[in-house]
Specification:
Number of helices of chain B: 13
Shape of chain B: globular
Strand content of chain B: 15-25%
Largest sheet of chain A: none
Structural class of chain A: mainly alpha
Number of strands of chain A: 0
Shape of chain A: globular
Helix content of chain B: 25-40%
Oligomer: heterodimer
Strand content of chain A: under 5%
Radius of gyration of chain B: 29 Å
Strand order of the largest sheet of chain B: 3-2-1-4-5-6
Order of helices and strands of chain B: HHHHEEEHHEHEHHHHEHEEEEEHEEEE
Structural class of chain B: alpha+beta
Largest sheet of chain B: 6 strands, mixed
Distance between the termini of chain A: 37 Å
Number of helices of chain A: 9
Radius of gyration of chain A: 17 Å
Order of helices and strands of chain A: HHHHHHHHH
C-alpha cells in the first residue's frame, strides 16, 4: 500500500487540486488522500528548506496536513491552491521558529546522516539534499525548492518570499549553477 | 535544459526523503474536525478601523479627483510594449510616452535589464538601451536576429503608430552592413484567456499570440512545444498566409545557426551512400519536430525514394526511411532512428543496386557518415539488429567537434574537460570549457559524433 502511493504521486493540476480541496471540505476521504499525495513533497521540501531540520520538517508537514484539512472549508477558490498551501506551511514554519525562540536561520551544518529518514533515499538523493542544506543560502535554497517541488513560477516565488523578481531570478540562476558544479565535482570524486 | 534535469533530481530526492505518515494524519484529522486554522492572509475578517480607513480614502479620492487628474495621467498606463527575442521585457508607458514600469518576464529579460533604471525615461532612450544590451550580451546576433514587438493600447491609432515607429527604429538599431534584422510587430488586445495561457508557459502575451498562430498552421505543432522557442526559430517556422497582415515583418530571420540545406543534403547523401548525380526530385524544408529544428529532405534515386530528417544544428541523421517504388515487387520499407537502432533489421529484401554502380542500400550500422557496408547487389547486412556501435570516436574528436561547433580553438579556451559517460543508455562525451566569460557545456554522441546537447552561459 505504501509503495503504491509513491509510484502514483504525480504532479496534480491546479484545477484538480482546487476541486480536491473543496471535496475535502465535504469530508471526502478519498479527496483527503489525494490532497495528502499532492502536498506531501512540496510542503516537506519547503519546510526543510526553511528549518533545515528533517525532524522539524516532518512535524510541520504533519501539522499542515491537519490544519489544511480543517481549513478546507474556508478556502476560497483562487486558482492557485498550491500557493495557499505553501503559505500555510510558511506560517507554520515561522511559528515554529518563534516558539523555539529563534528568528534567524540555524547555522549548524546538517549532517548527511540526519537525512537518513527513509529507506527510499539513495546516495544521490542524500548528496543533492545535503548540498542544498549546507551550500546554498537560505533564500537560494527556498527559491530552488519552490521552483522544483511546488512548480511555482519565479513571479509567484517573489510574491511568497517578499523578494523582488529580479532577485529571485538571479539567486535562482546562481544556485542552479552552484548545484551543477557541485554535483559534477562530486561525481568526479566518487568515480 | 540542464536545469530541468537537475530540478527533477532534486524533486526525486525530496520525494524520497519526505515521510509517509498518511495513515497517522487521516486518523488525526478525523479527530480534529473542529479545528479551524485561518490562513494569515484571509480577507473576510478585517479590523473595523481598516474598513473605516478604506472608506475615508475612497471619499478623499472622489473629492480631489479633479486635482488628481494631472497626477493620474502621469501614472496611468497609456500603452504597453512587449519585446521578445528570447529575453522577454514589458514596458508600460504613460501618455507622454515616458516609462512608468519596466518588467523582465523571464531570466534572460532580467539579464538584459541588469541594473538599469528607466522610470521616467523616454521610450526611445529605453529601447535604445535595451537593444544595445541585447546586442552586447549576444541575445541578438547574426545567428539570432529576430525580435517581436507587441503593442497594446486602448487608442488604436496610437497602437498602429507605435508599431510602425518602433519597427523602423529597432530595425535601424540592429541592422548594420551585412547584418539584417527581422523585426516582427503586432498589436495585442486585452485577452484574459490568452494572458492566462501566456502566464502558464511563462511567456509574454505577444509571444503567446504568435505561438498560437503558428501552432494552428500544422497538426504536429503544439503550443506547449513551440512556447519555449526563440522568436528567430518561430519566425522561421511561420509561413505567412496570403493577405494576412496581423503580423508585420521587416527583414528575414537568420538561419545561420543552422547548417543549411546544402550541408543537410550532404549528410543525407553520405548516409545513403549516394552522390548528387544519383538523385532527383530533391525537396527540403526546415521544420520543428520532437523539440528540435530539423531539415526534412526527400529525394529519389533509381527505384527508391528516400526521406531524411537531419538535425539542423548538428547535421546528425535523426530518422531515415527508404521505400522501393518499382512495379510488382513487394515494398521493402526500412525505417530507422540514426545511431540507435533496435528495430527490425534490413534483411535481404532490398532490390539490386540501381544501375550506375553506387549501392542504394542504407548502411547497416547507425553511425552517421560511414559509407554503406554492403557491396553492390548483395542482400543487405542482417547485422542491423545490433544496438550500439562498439567503436567510439575518441576524446580528441569529441573535443574538436565541440570546439568547432562553438567556433573556437583549443588554444583559446580555458578549463577544457572531457569525460566519457553514459546517458539514457548510450555513451556520450561530456565536455566543458570557458571562453571570455562564457561557459560552454557539450554532450557528444560517442559513436556518431553528433552534438546531442549544448549550453552556453555567461558567468
Amino acid at each position: 500500500m505504501v509503495h503504491e502511493t509513491f509510484k502514483s504521486e504525480e504532479k496534480i493540476s491546479a484545477r484538480a487540486l482546487d476541486r480536491c480541496i473543496s471535496d475535502v471540505a465535504r469530508n471526502d476521504q478519498a479527496a483527503l488522500e489525494e490532497l495528502y499525495m499532492a502536498m506531501r513533497t512540496p510542503v516537506y521540501a519547503f519546510a526543510l528548506s526553511m528549518l533545515k531540520s528533517p525532524q522539524d520538517a516532518e512535524d510541520v508537514l504533519h501539522d499542515c496536513l491537519i490544519s489544511i484539512a480543517g481549513a478546507a472549508g474556508s478556502y476560497k477558490s483562487t486558482g492557485k491552491p498550491m500557493a495557499w498551501i505553501i503559505t500555510i506551511a510558511k506560517n507554520r514554519c515561522l511559528q515554529l521558529l518563534r516558539e523555539r525562540g529563534r528568528c534567524e536561520e540555524l547555522n549548524e551544518t546538517v549532517h548527511e546522516a540526519a537525512l537518513s529518514g527513509s529507506e527510499r533515499m539513495s546516495e544521490a538523493d542524500r548528496l543533492i539534499l545535503s548540498f542544498c542544506l549546507n551550500e546554498l543560502s537560505d533564500a537560494e535554497r527556498q527559491i530552488v525548492t519552490l521552483h522544483a517541488t511546488a512548480g511555482f513560477k519565479h513571479r509567484e516565488i517573489a510574491a511568497l518570499l517578499s523578494l523582488p523578481l529580479s532577485t529571485v531570478l538571479s539567486k535562482y540562476n546562481r544556485a542552479m549553477k552552484k548545484m551543477r558544479r557541485y554535483l559534477a565535482d562530486e561525481v568526479k570524486d566518487h568515480v | 535544459m540542464f536545469n530541468k534535469k537537475l530540478e527533477k533530481r532534486l524533486y526525486q530526492a525530496f520525494s524520497n526523503a519526505a515521510p509517509d505518515i498518511k495513515s497517522t494524519v487521516i486518523i488525526d484529522s478525523a479527530e480534529q474536525k473542529d479545528v479551524r486554522i485561518v490562513p494569515m492572509y484571509t480577507n473576510n475578517i478585517r479590523p473595523l478601523w481598516s474598513r473605516f480607513a478604506a472608506m475615508a480614502a475612497a471619499f478623499a479620492i472622489m473629492v480631489s479627483s479633479a486635482g488628481l487628474y494631472l497626477y493620474h495621467s502621469e501614472k496611468a498606463v497609456a500603452a504597453a510594449v512587449q519585446l521578445d527575442v528570447n529575453p522577454s521585457i514589458e514596458i508600460k508607458l504613460n501618455q507622454k510616452e515616458r516609462v512608468i514600469e519596466l518588467t523582465p518576464l523571464n531570466e534572460d529579460g532580467a539579464a538584459v535589464i541588469g541594473d538599469m533604471d528607466f522610470k521616467g525615461s523616454s521610450l526611445e532612450l529605453t529601447v535604445n538601451a535595451l537593444i544595445g544590451s541585447m546586442l552586447r550580451k549576444g541575445y541578438l546576433s547574426e545567428l539570432a536576429n529576430s525580435i517581436l514587438v507587441s503593442v497594446n493600447s486602448k487608442d488604436h491609432a496610437k497602437e498602429a503608430e507605435l508599431q510602425e515607429r518602433l519597427s523602423k527604429e529597432i530595425s535601424g538599431l540592429i541592422s548594420s552592413p551585412g547584418f539584417e534584422a527581422a523585426v516582427l510587430t503586432q498589436s495585442v488586445a486585452e485577452d484574459e484567456t490568452l494572458k492566462a495561457k501566456a502566464d502558464e508557459y511563462g511567456i509574454t502575451q505577444g509571444k503567446a499570440q504568435l505561438v498560437e498562430e503558428i501552432a494552428a498552421q500544422k497538426e504536429s505543432y503544439s503550443f506547449e512545444a513551440l512556447a519555449p522557442l526563440s522568436i528567430n526559430e518561430l519566425n522561421l517556422l511561420r509561413k505567412q498566409a496570403p493577405g494576412e497582415d496581423a503580423i508585420h515583418v521587416t527583414g528575414r530571420s537568420s538561419d545561420k545557426a543552422y547548417i543549411g540545406v546544402d550541408a543537410a543534403k550532404l549528410a543525407a547523401l553520405r548516409h545513403a551512400g549516394l552522390s548528387e548525380a544519383d538523385i532527383y526530385g530533391f525537396e527540403a524544408e526546415l521544420d520543428f519536430e520532437n523539440g528540435r529544428m530539423v531539415y526534412e529532405l526527400e529525394f529519389r534515386a533509381g527505384n527508391m525514394s528516400y526521406d531524411y530528417e537531419i538535425d539542423a544544428l548538428s547535421g546528425a541523421v535523426i530518422k531515415y526511411e527508404t521505400e522501393f517504388e518499382g512495379a510488382g515487387q513487394a515494398p521493402a520499407t526500412v525505417q530507422k532512428d540514426g545511431g540507435r537502432d533496435n528495430s527490425g533489421s534490413a534483411s535481404g529484401q532490398l532490390p539490386p543496386a540501381a544501375a550506375g554502380g553506387s549501392p542504394a542500400a542504407p548502411p547497416a550500422q547507425g553511425s552517421a557518415g560511414s559509407p554503406a557496408q554492403s557491396s553492390p547487389g548483395s542482400a543487405a547486412q542482417g547485422s542491423a539488429g545490433q544496438a550500439q556501435s562498439q567503436t567510439l570516436i575518441g576524446e580528441g574528436s569529441a573535443k574538436k567537434i565541440a570546439l568547432d561547433h562553438a567556433g573556437l580553438s583549443e588554444g583559446s579556451v580555458q578549463g577544457l574537460r572531457c569525460k566519457l559517460d553514459r546517458e539514457d543508455g548510450i555513451q556520450v562525451y561530456e565536455l566543458e570549457f570557458r571562453y571570455q566569460g562564457w561557459s560552454y557545456e557539450y554532450e557528444i554522441d560517442a559513436s556518431s559524433g553528433a552534438v546531442i546537447k549544448w549550453e552556453k552561459d555567461n558567468d
